[in-house]
Amino acid sequence: MRIDLHSHSSVSDGTDAPAAVVEHAVAAGVDVLALTDHDTTAGIAEAAAHLPPGFTLVPGIELSCAHRGSSVHLLGYLFDPDDPELTAELRRVRDDRVVRARTMVERLRDLGVPVTWDRVRAIAGDVDGRDVVGRPHIARALVEAGAAEDVQDAFDRWIGSGKPAHVTRYALDPVRAVRLVRAAGGVCVLAHPARGEGELTRAVPDELVERMAEAGLNGIEADHPSHDEAERAHWRRRAAELGLVVTGSSDDHGELTGRRLGCSTTDPDAYAALVAQATGAAPYTG
């Protein structure tokens, strides 16, 4: 059984609609897929409506967190999507994401870069009439305008941390995020801990991981495309020391990442351990 517990659709910063993500996962030989869009579960219903027989969808989310100025991402699975406290925090994060994106576009315009808000919104699309703009959409607009060679160059030159058009935004404290997901009946996994905000050099500090584990963290995504073998070994060791499961995932964003669903996978026993600890929701099976 091939299990991929981290993927994105066009309801956040992926390029493919939720139904298409499922289609690509099936074509890649994936049997179990978690859809984990940034700070939203808006794509789950569409994905669940397009499952072929025997294919399993795990409802999830990737929560935007921050620790001492650095980005930390938390994957949440199988939580109650109507939990009031978690829902309120997600609304605050999403609203601030749009404010941040508009401000970044304004900064780019002030810097003489020909990127417009209307074009960025058109690239992003919307979900149920709501803007879902994120930095990858701005990056694609920068590439389209000839201000960057590719998405990574757009981050490196314009909108990455410390770059001319970068704007900080509201993000959850990682320990509080773990507690919110667990209180909503979900389970959570630290995403790509050796990867920072677009760089591979800033790992999540061990002391923070330990505090997250004490708060109820269930696992660590050690097997991620951005991790080299030494990083994978380090985070597998830390997971064992803390009594956490190890997961593997593609973190696929459609065209932006070369449609790599299933390139890293989770062991079935680790997946079963996560599902067994969740009480907020259940996986969908076609």
TrEMBL record:
Pfam families: PHP (PF02811). CDD domains: PHP_HisPPase_AMP. Transmembrane segments: none annotated. Residues 3-67 form the Polymerase/histidinol phosphatase N-terminal domain. It comes from the Bacteria. PANTHER family: EXONUCLEASE, POLYMERASE_HISTIDINOL PHOSPHATASE N-TERMINAL DOMAIN-CONTAINING PROTEIN. This is PHP domain-containing protein. SMART domains: POLIIIAc. InterPro entries: PHP_dom, PHP_domain, Pol/His_phosphatase_N, Pol/histidinol_Pase-like.
